[in-house]
Amino acid sequence: MKSSGLIIKAFAVFAKDLRLELRTKYAVNTILMFGVTSLAVVSFSLGQSGLPTKLLAALFWIVMFFSAMAALAQAFTREEEAGTALALRLTAEPNSVYLGKLFFNLTLLSTLAAVITPLFFIFTDAPTESILPFILVLGLGVLALCAATTLVAAIIAKAAVKGALFAVLSFPILLLPLMMLVGASDKILLGSGMGAVAAPLQGLVAYTVVMITASLLLFGFVWKE
Question: What does the DSSP assignment read for 151-191?
Fold first, then answer.
C-alpha cells in the first residue's frame, strides 16, 4: 500500500510539471532547439560521409549531454523561482517528489531522443540497419543521464549560477556512463552483434540502479535543506 501511494504521489508531481510544460513549452523548446541546432551544425561542419563510427557515436552523445544540461535543471529551479517549492515540501514526500521529477526529466530527454535519433541517421552516414540495437543503447543512456542529473538539479536549485554549476557537477558523475555509451554505440554502428555490447549495457544498468538508489536515500536531506 505504501509503495502504491508513493507512485500515485510521484505521478501527481509528474502530471503537474507536464501540464505546466505543455502550457509554457519552455524546457522542451530549449532542449529541442539546442539539440537539433548542435547536431546540424556539427555534422555539416565535419561532413556527412567517411567519418569513423567512434566519432559519430561521440558526436551523438555530446549533443545529448549538452542538450540535457540545457534543460534538465529546470525541474527544480522552476519550483524555486515560482515559489512553489515550499508547498511541494509540505504536500509530498521527498521520494515522491524525486520520482516525479525523474519521470518528467525522462519525458523531456526521451522527446529529444525521438527527434535527434532519426536526424542523426539522416545527417550522417551511420548505417540504418543499426537503428534498432542503437535504440536499446539510447534508452539505457537516457535513463542513466536522468538518474544521475535529477539529484544534481535539486542540489543546485537555490544556487545563483544554476546552469554553469549544473554542468560542472554533472560532468564528473556522467563521465563513466558517457564513455560506456560511446563505446557501445560505436560497436553497434560497426555492425557488431548485441553480444559485443553486453558488458557496457550491464554496466549502464548497474550504474542506473546505483544512482537511483543513492538518490532516493539522499534526496530527503537535499530537499529539506
Answer: HHHHHTTT-SSHHHHHHHHHHHHHHHHHHHHHHHHHHHHHT
